[in-house]
TrEMBL record:
Primary role: Part of the outer membrane protein assembly complex, which is involved in assembly and insertion of beta-barrel proteins into the outer membrane.
Protein name (database record): Outer membrane protein assembly factor BamB
Nucleotide-binding as UniProt keyword: no
Keywords: Cell outer membrane, Lipoprotein, Membrane, Palmitate, Signal
Membrane topology: Lipid-anchor
Organism: Dyella lutea
Oligomeric form and interacting partners: Part of the Bam complex.
Gene name of the record: bamB
Lineage: Bacteria, Pseudomonadati, Pseudomonadota, Gammaproteobacteria, Lysobacterales
Length: 403
């Protein structure tokens, strides 16, 4: 069994910070405490929890930002202790579940997948479900019942969801490689090797984005990279961060969030870097502004929403990057990446709360508590519902309605 540890140097003083989904500023002996929530808050929109469920122990203490995916009315979720499950997205009814292990790491449990400590995924397309593990495996399974079809053995942790497109399963590993696997068999078609991976990095990887025959992703050294989908050849790259500073921590410049494509424009962020808009076909920068973030932006209409490294929620003009508004009420609550549900921005926080902010002016509109555990994964919006998962595998489905 290959080691499950990332090939990066971890500073002891940063370990508690990384556990909160990123590297944040320390203040004396601890990180900044979360800003208290207003006790006299009056919601302006009604939120109904439609259903809740749980999948194993979730991501646990791994630092992985693993969340669910919704495809064709079914929600799929996995956990690092080896559970994989499918639910009816409307009602929460469990359709099926599989457990790959029962007694730990050293040879007990499912003889076929005794190492399946899921951490990357799931991803679903048609009847195929793909999911990666902490020890560098990718499994191709039936999306109908979780039965196994194939297994691919890679070189490092898979802690972000694969992408299934056409006859390929695209996978990113923690050692800086991107793989193109055969959809039917899991055989390796091609591999792209980033080369020199920084010794110091934020725990996590941004997911791959596949569109128009190209694979886009943010790299561990703060670049947005575009690859040919058919053979993995690099087409272009653009810097999202400059890696400047006196210390290793100051020079840390991961692009750990998802790259977002809206029309033909790509949007990406980096820690100690910038929020950048790039023309997708050419790789030409359209605009850039300084903005340090360990998460993913969200785009809706003519606005781009993002959370910075102090957990302030920002809105920018899509066409030029000008500020539209900033909300400080959730500062240091170590928010998830934002999602957009109708006229609201949705984020989860370190104490298990889910917050809705108005897209027009950033005013807080509602909040609900999923649990008392941190929410690191970006909320998932499908139809009129938003699905939120915390680090212990609790999943909540919420719908908005007028008061």
């Amino acid at each position: 069994m290959k080691p499950v540890f990332k090939k990066f140097v971890w500073l002891i003083a940063m370990s508690s910070l990384v556990a909160l989904s990123g590297c944040h500023n320390k203040k004396k002996d601890n990180i900044e405490p979360p800003t208290p929530l207003a006790k006299d808050f009056t919601p302006t929109v009604k939120v109904a929890k439609v259903w809740s469920a749980r999948v194993g122990e979730g991501a646990g203490v791994t630092g992985v930002r693993m969340g669910p995916v919704v495809v064709d009315g079914v929600l799929y979720a996995a956990s690092t202790d080896g559970e994989l499950a499918a639910f009816d997205a409307a009602s929460g009814k469990k359709l099926w579940s599989k457990k790959s292990s029962t007694h730990g790491w050293f040879g007990w449990g499912d003889k076929h997948r005794k190492d399946a400590f899921y951490a990357g995924g799931p991803a679903v397309d048609g009847d195929l479900l793909a999911v990666g593990t902490l020890d560098g495996h990718v499994y191709g399974l039936s999306s109908k019942d979780g039965s196994q079809r194939w297994e691919a053995d890679l070189n490092s942790e898979v802690i972000t969801a694969p992408v299934i497109v056409g006859d390929l399963v695209l996978v990113r590993t923690q050692d800086g490689r991107v793989y193109g696997l055969d959809r039917a068999s899991g055989d390796r078609r091609w591999v792209y090797d980033q080369g020199n991976v920084p010794l110091l990095s934020v725990r996590g990887n941004g997911p791959l984005l596949a569109a128009n025959g190209v694979v886009f992703f943010g790299s561990d050294d703060g670049k947005l990279v575009a690859l040919r989908m058919d053979n993995g050849e690099k087409l272009w790259e653009q810097a999202l961060a400059n890696g400047e500073g006196r210390t290793d921590i100051e020079r840390l410049d991961d692009a750990d969030g998802a790259v977002v494509l809206d029309g033909t424009t790509l949007f990406g962020t980096a820690y100690h870097g910038n929020l950048v808009a790039i023309d997708g076909p050419s790789g030409r920068p359209l605009w850039s502004r300084q903005f340090s973030s360990y998460g993913s932006p969200a785009v809706s209409g003519n606005m781009v929403f993002a959370v910075n490294d102090q957990s302030q929620v920002w809105a920018f003009d899509r066409s030029g990057g000008a500020d539209q508004w900033k909300n400080d009420a959730l500062k240091y609550r170590w928010l998830s990446s934002p999602a957009v549900q109708g006229s609201y921005v949705v984020v989860g926080d370190v104490e298990g709360y889910v917050h809705w902010l108005q897209t027009g002016d950033g005013a807080l509109a509602a909040r609900e508590r999923l649990s008392k555990k941190p929410i690191r994964a970006q909320p998932v919006v499908a139809g009129d519902m938003v699905y939120v998962e915390d680090i212990k595998g609790h999943i909540g489905a919420y719908r908005l309605s007028a008061n």
